[in-house]
Amino acid sequence: PHMINPTDFAQHIKNASEKSDGIILVAREHPAINNAVRDVTQGGIPVICLTSDLPSSGRTAYVGSDQFASGSTAGWLCGRFLRADHAQKVLLVSSVPFRCQLDREQGFRQVLRSEFPWLTIDEKVASDESPDVAYEAVRRYVAKNGAPAAIYNVSGANLGIGRALEAEGLVGATVFIGHELNANSRKLLESSIMDLTIGHDFEREMAMAVACIQMVRDGSQPVNNMTQSQIFTRHNCTAT
Question: How far is it, in rounded angstroms, from Cα 30 to Cα 188?
Fold first, then answer.
């Protein structure tokens, strides 16, 4: 989470390595965290990055979906949802610098520029992974700029965005796309507040990460394992 001090988290990684055969890590990009991962792997403990990569850290391997492709998919679907007869604005919601969020944003922006030039990202607001912060940010945007044609959230706090859409009377009028299928996003999908979410098979990826650690213990060098993204709507979000 964004509120964790990266220096403290880096020390936690080092402490965990002293009593572990391997570490499965989901972390933001920060020099202190990258340095901790580098020290741990050089000490012989494999570190597998899950969902969000740390490519500059010297980690042992990455397991997860191609987040740039996930963002590109979100951009393509957003463009297909909206009519092409006039220019429209998209609101982007982001949080702290997890690599997965940065990659999603880049993929989304590239597809909008190349395939849907009538759609522009009007503004980028921060959620801080907090539903309350996201709620206030979206409502401030609407008060200042009017309703966006779509909202794309690369981070968490989907519930806050959903609350804001309800408060502004924009459910069904503003396309809402996010990431990660969990209890919150499933609730939003089932109530038709969120139009779609892009997820991935987390349990399978966890098993693959454990297998990577076992490979190191057996003397082999694991490679990155890229998995397929999954698209969920209200029609298929319970079939997991």
Answer: 32
Give the Cα separation of 222 and 62 in Å (integer).
9
- Whole-model pTM above 0.70? yes
Residue type, 137: A
Element (H, E) at 231: strand 230-232
Rounded CA-CA distance 169/163 in Å is: 10
First to last CA, the chain: 25
For tokens 């006039």, what's the residue? 86
Q: In 3D, which of 227, 170, 161, 223 has the Cα closest to residue 198? A: 227
Q: Which tens digit of pLDDT belongs to each residue from 173-199?
A: 999 999 999 999 999 999 999 999 999
Reduce the DSSP state of residue 179 to 3 states and report it: strand
